Amino acid sequence: MIDLDKLQMQQPSFGFFARHLTYPDKLDFHPSLLEEAWDAGHPAYASIKRYWDSMHEFSLEQIEELYVQTFDFQKKTTLYMTYFKMEDSRERGQMLVRLKETYELFGLEIASSELSDYLPLMCEFLYAARWEGHMKEATESLSLMLAVLEDGTYHLLKELERLDSPYSGLIRALRDTLKMCTIQEAELG
Q: Which InterPro entries does this UniProt record tie to the protein (predicted)?
């Protein structure tokens, strides 16, 4: 189950993820971005720092090439979170509709050309969404979104680790951040 207060506290982290999961830009690697979104006490900080340090060993051109080779040309490292399990099935279409309804519930309209399970879009939404006044709907809708993220990033992380990709640190940090935003069974009492 999702903890909306914890999710709100993590919004700067989701903004960071959204930026680093889209096509790279020089400003994405400015030190202030790391400082604004992360502190050394964050449970995902070690993974983020590993990602950050490894990416700074490359030129921007090399990072762009790495991004394209990693996310655009390999099915197993796609940024579409329902693709791993459902590929192009009818169930995937239904899930995409449900995710799109979540965006619309909070006033975000996505371009018709964009699929609602695109990881950078999902992170951007978690960064920008305001769910005050929609607590019941937010709990249900965002729990579904986090379940999709949990499942999709699990498969993505396994493949990135197999490839020894620097992006594995980013996805591990995302997964650790998602975990922080859930209420564990022990907390429910």
A: DMSO/NO3_reduct_chaperone, NO3_reductase_chaperone_NarJ, TorD-like_sf
Report how far residue 40's alpha carbon sits from residue 42's, in angstroms, rounded to the nearest whole number: 6
Straight-line distance from the first to the last Cα atom of the chain, in angstroms, rounded to the nearest whole number: 13
- Token couple for 14: 């989701």
CA 96 distance to own-chain centroid: 16
**What three-state secondary structure class fits 33?**
helix
* pTM across the whole model: 0.91
CA atoms lying within 13 Å on the CB side of residue 21: 28
Residue from 152, 125, 124, 139 nearest 181 by CA: 139
- Per-residue pLDDT of 176-185, as tens digits, reads 999 999 876 4
Q: Name the 3-class secondary structure at 47.
A: helix
User: For the chain, what are the domain ranges?
Assistant: 4-188
Which SS3 state, helix, strand or coil, does residue 30 take?
coil
At residue 77, the pLDDT reads 96
90-98 long-range contacts, CB within 8 A, separation 24+:
92/117, 95/148, 98/144
Q: Rounded to whole angstroms, how far apart are CA atoms 137 and 131?
A: 9
Q: Cα-flanking dihedrals φ and ψ of residue 26, to 5°? A: -55, -40
**CA dist., res. 139 & res. 72, Å (int):** 32
Distance CA 157, CA 152 (A): 9
